[in-house]
UniProtKB/TrEMBL annotation:
Family indicated by similarity: Belongs to the UPF0102 family.
PANTHER family: UPF0102 PROTEIN YRAN
SUPFAM superfamilies named among the record's database cross-references: Restriction endonuclease-like
Matches recorded under InterPro entries: Restrct_endonuc-II-like (IPR011335), tRNA_endonuc-like_dom_sf (IPR011856), UPF0102_YraN-like (IPR003509)
Gene source species: Chryseobacterium kwangjuense
Record Pfam families: UPF0102
The protein's name in its UniProt record: UPF0102 protein ACKW6Q_15240
């Protein structure tokens, strides 16, 4: 496994821990539908929270959350719709991004961006 894949897995684990510590219930990780994947699907306050985890070793070129393109949003929304139908969920859905970046001392910093995008952004 490549180093960036290891870092991505570490970032997803950190994001899941962060969510659990903040009162979220993790429903599923790495949910796949067709070619799309949702990193984490959680629940809190009767909302379904769809979380895209973005990790970068540096923010020199772009912030992690800036890597969530319109095409990526479209695939996440499609997978989220499938999840909601498959598991017969009828709650409101919120789309969040958790970015993970090392600071100058190589400590990993987590930023949770709630309501980072809406399903309408996929159009």
């Amino acid at each position: 496994m490549a180093t960036h894949n290891d870092f991505g897995k570490i970032a997803e684990d950190l994001a899941a821990e962060f969510l659990l510590k903040n009162g979220y219930t993790i429903l599923v990780r790495n949910f796949r539908f067709q070619k799309a994947e949702i990193d984490i699907i959680a629940e809190k306050d009767n909302l379904i929270i769809v979380v895209e985890v973005k990790a970068r070793s540096t923010d020199t070129f772009m912030l992690p959350q800036e890597a969530v393109t319109k095409a990526k949003i479209k695939s996440i929304v499609s997978a989220a719709n499938h999840f909601m139908e498959e598991f017969n969920k009828n709650q409101e859905v919120r789309f969040d991004i958790i970015s993970v970046l090392p600071d100058e001392k190589n400590n990993l910093i987590i930023e949770h961006i709630e309501n980072a995008f809406e399903a309408l952004d996929a159009n």
